[in-house]
Amino acid sequence: MTTHGEAAVLVLAAGAGTRMRSDTPKVLHTLAGRSMLSHALHSVAKVAPAHLVVLLGQDRDRVAPAVAQLADELGRPIQVAVQEQQLGTGHAVACALSALPEDFTGIVVVTYGDVPLLDADTLAGLIAEHNAESAAATVLTTTLPDPTGYGRILRTQDGQGRDLLGIVEQADASPSQQAIREINAGVYAFDIAALRSALSRLRSDNAQRELYLTDVISIVRSDGHIVRARHVDDSMLVAGINDRMQLAELHAELNKRIVVAHQRAGVTIIDPATTWIDVDVSIGRDTVIHPGTQLLGATRIGGRCQIGPDTTLTDITVGDEATVVRTHGSSSLIGDGAVVGPFTYLRPGTVLGSDAKLGAFVETKNSTIGDGTKVPHLTYVGDADIGDHSNIGASSVFVNYDGENKSRTTIGSHVRTGSDTMFVAPVTVGDGAYTGAGTVVRDDVPPGALAVSAGPQRNIEGWVERKRPESAAAEAARKARENPPEAAAEDE
């Protein structure tokens, strides 16, 4: 049979996913920063098929918008087909084929939306072998230590066993067939004419009373066409997800592979077992990732950085040679050589300049902090712009909310502010200005000025003994007054 180079890929994602026990459609559950469906479509898109169809079922109103978003992300059209009733995999493929042009005559690849580790190289190898063998059908297979629940592969006994006799489902397999450990991975390449012909002859006279796609193999073979099996040694590449346990297992496996790829690219990861990295994260050479670190979303880490321990960064960009310790942050930017942490919280919109510092127990939000500026400890910076080489004293608060509106604070360059300064926005502090400890800044501070708001200190003598006469403090005060430090020194 003559096959054609042009390919269409059908991604079956119509299953109910009842074993997930979830209100979220199964294919929208995530691992390593992408949904199962997103993993599948990213891999398929790399093969650049002429047509890409996603088959949806009962959750289509929730999954279809995700498909549309992925089409935009991948920059290619994705067709959607619908399976109204769940009548088996053969029926599903027939529904998906309806989305292809009637005059399409190429290869049809069938895969699934819940096989997240299936990569483009495996799909490309399937298509290449299908073309090279001029086959009507080519099946991906793998070998499992325990094949229970999977369709078994029946091969010819011609020495190499490259030809496929058929696939028998677990419920229909004889004891000897159940002993076979080579299983159907559920991913196929078909000549479209042979596929359509076989689908029209499927019958539901089986244990599940469904139209099995696996029966297409025996039908195509009985028509005298070539049927091949392509074995995948790495069974994780074709593993599917049906429940939360399998989701966790494949997430851990995918994470292990992501970690290894970064290690091979020159990243030191101290403890891979406690390090989680999403698939879209990038990390520069000679960066060290310490234990208990999660790098999520589209996080970008520069070279020669120290990240962690106990740090979670989501959609964060970190420049070269920065240090980020025990920090939680999202949608922010950390400049080259900056130091962040420990126990620092970066909320969205934080931009930290080069060689700047955010220290212990500092929270920032929607703020720009200039090069070389330091916010060392115990401070909230919200809706602010701080210039270069300034220092914000401990326990300062940028008071950005008046109960109705958010307002901004502007701090110039080379500013020194005392501990426990309150900046009541909107307010501007000019370049080179200072504030005294405990100052409440309600009005603009000119460049080079010192702002203070407290009056002279008053000491009310004897207050403790009058107001707290029975307290330990009152007793201590009485003894100190009766024996002042000067008298004690004279006695010595």
Structure description:
With 492 residues, this protein is of the alpha/beta class. 23% of the residues lie in helices and 28% in strands. The protein is built from eleven helices and 39 strands. Strands 12, 13, 15, 16, 18, 19, 21, 22, 24, 25, 27 and 29 form a twelve-stranded parallel sheet that branches. Helix 2 links the parallel strand 4 and strand 5. Helix 1 packs across helix 4 and helix 6 crosses helix 7. It is elongated. 41% of the residues are buried.
Concise summary:
This protein has 492 residues and is of the alpha/beta class. The strands form 7 sheets. Strands 12, 13, 15, 16, 18, 19, 21, 22, 24, 25, 27 and 29 form a 12-stranded parallel beta sheet that branches. The chain has a 9-stranded parallel beta sheet with strand order 14-17-20-23-26-28-30-33-36, with no helix packed on it. The chain has a 7-stranded mixed beta sheet with strand order 5-4-1-6-10-7-11, with helices on both faces.
Question: Secondary-structure map with pairings?
Answer:
Blueprint: E1 7-13, E2 30-31, E3 34-35, H1 36-47, E4 51-56, H2 60-74, E5 79-82, H3 89-97, E6 107-112, H4 120-132, E7 137-143, E8 152-155, E9 164-168, H5 175-178, E10 182-191, H6 192-199, H7 215-222, E11 227-231, H8 244-264, E12 268-269, E13 276-277, E14 282-283, E15 288-289, E16 294-296, E17 300-301, E18 306-307, E19 312-314, E20 317-318, E21 323-324, E22 327-330, E23 333-334, E24 339-340, E25 344-346, E26 351-352, E27 357-365, E28 368-369, E29 374-382, E30 384-386, E31 391-392, E32 397-399, E33 409-411, E34 416-417, E35 422-424, E36 427-429, E37 434-435, E38 440-441, E39 450-451, H9 463-467, H10 472-482, H11 485-491
Parallel strand pairs: 1-4, 1-6, 4-5, 7-11, 12-15, 13-16, 14-17, 15-18, 16-19, 17-20, 18-21, 19-22, 20-23, 21-24, 22-25, 23-26, 24-27, 25-27, 26-28, 27-29, 28-30, 30-33, 31-34, 32-35, 33-36, 34-37, 35-38, 37-39
Antiparallel strand pairs: 2-3, 6-10, 7-10, 8-9
